[in-house]
Amino acid sequence: MRPVLFRAIPALLSVAALAGGAHALAADSDRLLPNLALPTLGGSQLWADLALDGGWRVQRHVWTGHARLLDEDNVRRAWGSKAACLAALRDHGKAVEGQGRPVVVVLHGLWRTRRSMSPLAASFRGAGYEVIDVTYPSARASIEEHAAQVAGILDRLSGSDREVSFVTHSLGALVTRQLLAREGDAWRGRHRAYRAVFIAPPNRGARLAEIGRKVPLLPWIYGEPMRQIAGGFTRDLAGPGVPFATIAGGCGDDEGWNPLIPGDDDGVVAVAETRLPGAAGELVVRRLHTTIMKDPAAIGAAVTFIRRGVLPASGAAATGAAPAPPSR
Fold first, then answer.
1. Tens-digit pLDDT profile for residues 45-81
2. Model-level pTM?
3. Mind listing the domains of the chain with CATH numbers?
4. pLDDT one-digit tens code per residue, 228-285
5. 50, 62, 79, 194: most buried by Cβ count inside 10 Å?
6. CB count, 10 Å around CB of 17?
7. 117 Cβ partners below 8 Å, 6+ apart?
8. Using CB atoms within 10 A of its CB, is residue 55 exposed (0-12), middle (13-18) or buried (19+)?
9. Is 47 in a helix, a strand, or coil?
């Protein structure tokens, strides 16, 4: 059995190489290629959103560069070059009603997917916002590259003079800060960066990343962002330049969940590491890093801050209830 398996390895590698080559050629094609409308298999660490419209999205593959068009159920409706898929999205014409609505960009954390932010995104949709829930290959590119990707999405945002806010988990805060520090992006000339809520952000670095950088394979698994955080990336990173609030996870004591992290923490990031000078509000909820963005108190606080510019009292936030929809 084992010799048969070993003999099959070269054949499997050949098939993989041919498939990769075919997809790379598709990236250079000027048209869409034959397609079967099938659900995707995921691959969230290999795909980056380029444009979104009414739940449909165009994504680019990290390695091959080819693109695909997905509907709101993650069924692939077309694939080929970036230009061809963007044209297909325009032809689809599923424009979002009420394009003057304020926008909330939702960014997940390292090695997570936009599905991890689904409860939060649903709360903002219910509160009347247009939500751009971005898929980005968090471990496969640098923070600067992620920021450039989000800038490209916002450059395609319809309308003018729309309020664009950001609600993020973990790494998403650093991507947002890098994004807002960029100059010359087209969307900044047409829309207004408004407010931001950073949930469990490593705003001042992360002790755990510094430890993990020395563990074999972890820097490869968690990619360039982990190396950047461990290497002091946040020291020279500007604040967001808009009113913002931070929501941290912790135990409410001086020990936290993780004995490797000094002070209170959420198991991954210390409460002290989330803090950033100039915050309009700070909140600590009793949650771990991996689930805090689904916490009703955190969600309620995030919606309230984006809507009103203040964090609610802990009791009000605990209901997770959304405030009244925007009047515009």
1. 899 999 999 899 999 999 999 999 999 999 999 999 9
2. 0.86
3. 23-92 (no CATH), 103-317 (3.40.50.1820)
4. 999 999 999 999 999 999 999 999 999 999 999 999 999 999 999 999 999 999 999 9
5. 79
6. 10
7. 106, 107, 108, 133, 169, 293
8. middle
9. strand
